Amino acid sequence: MKLLVSTVSAALLALPVFSKTLPITLDIVNAQGAPDGFSRSMVTANGTYPGPLITATKGDTLVVTINNKLDDDTMRRSTSLDFDGIFVNTPNSFDEGSSFVTTCPVAPDASYTYTIPLVDGQAGTFWYHSQLSVQYVDGLRGALIVYDPEDPLKHLYDVDDENTIWQVGDWWHNTTLPLLAGYVATGIVPVSDSGTFNGVGRYNGGPDVPFHVVNVVQGTRYRFRIINTSARNVFTISIDSHNMTIIETDGNPTQPMTVNSIDMLAGQRHSIVVEANQPVANYWINAPYVGGDPTRNLNQNATLSRAILRYKGASAEDPSAPMSLGPAGSALNALVEANLRPLVASPAPEADINITLNLVVTAGKAQWNVNNVSYLAPEVPTLVKILEGANSADDFNVTENTFVLPANKIVQVIFPPSIDDEAHPFHLHGNNFWLIKSNSSEEINTQNPIKRDVAGVGSTGTIMRFSTANPGPWFFHCHIFWHFQAGLATVMASGLEETRKQVDPTKAWEALCPAYDALPADLQ
Ligand SMILES: [Cu+2]
């Protein structure tokens, strides 16, 4: 007995960190709000935009219960929550939140609990959003930060807390059902009314909503975690008179790289270190955005998208400098994605399988095609079909655009150059990819590419590689959710047999589809 006790104690002592279970409850409710001064009904978690901050420590298990209380019929009534960028191991893939790929949506007046262990030592900057149609455009988006007590770059910053998170996002005054109907009728992607920075913004002719204030103390170094929670817009982040040192890309530590301007596509995240090394004053944090032709929406004024960096001791007023689109007072030194390097260099594995994806819009229509197929969500989710025995591509609808892949292989995805006025931020669920060729450069890098989970696809072509060592049906789609909803999506379904062996879903998950399917259309 004594021997047993001491063995157990030794085992416990050997654990570097005690992982814990984090119960989180989110009431998904419609709430009236005016992020940019225009009052509208929103879809929210707990009534706020952005939603409540979720923080965890690496190794924790997220246990997120959502209570769907949505009752406004100008927006979708069902819902589903996706935790963007979080690694999801095969056995937990059923709780990954992608409607009609890994789950069915949660009906109004129902609750569901997603259980997601944080695996593989993953830490960094993530976010959550609705993954049902374009519902997150209506506001259901929030930050999810996983802290690493052993962060190898900790020596570079002094402060990293709930006040150093920057969420930028596009914002619309109308609700998504009419916006989507307009898109379908015209083929013109909705142009946002404004942009928000930590939930506040301004539009032409609107009230002077106070800008978000970021408080700093002179001589201190801050880790700011930036998340572009947009459904369309690219945000360009800069701070007047200050440099920004990038140390993280989508949850992956990078070699520190100092720039003064960062383009961020929808879904992308970066951590930056900023040293408050300037005279005590107020400085603009510029966060202009681009997303479609601004003359289509005269409310839009990207110059009004910004926040204030306020030194302790400075007066509580706007900076005296003019509102500019870039970092005033210094030559432009913009991030080139291809120049980023992982903190620990490692070559990408050789590819076993090559897939070429051609993205083409159907002229004049709200329809995007990947290799001539426009993705249409099936009635029976991909994972259900796999669990029921699907074995090949023939077992899925053509419009599911599902690529059946063997487990434990390296897949290379080649996006040839495509001509569109905006790059498509392609996002892989549940896993990372090596970015072999960035759209920002002609360089092919297999020796020390960065890993991330969202990368732009555009005019120069993009190449990614990912491993299928973590089998499952993983959604792979454009994070411009208007494009996603118009069919710009595929499913990378790997290791169907291995998936069947490892996935043992709960009764609560199995009940989701029958409940959803029984709903009248206006409650779905
Ligand atoms: Cu797109």
Automatic annotation (TrEMBL):
Residues 32-150, 163-314, 376-493 form the Plastocyanin-like domain. Residues 1-19 form the signal peptide. Keywords: Copper, Disulfide bond, Glycoprotein, Metal-binding, Oxidoreductase, Signal. PROSITE patterns: MULTICOPPER_OXIDASE1, MULTICOPPER_OXIDASE2. SUPFAM superfamilies: Cupredoxins (SSF49503). Belongs to the multicopper oxidase family. This is Cu-oxidase-domain-containing protein.
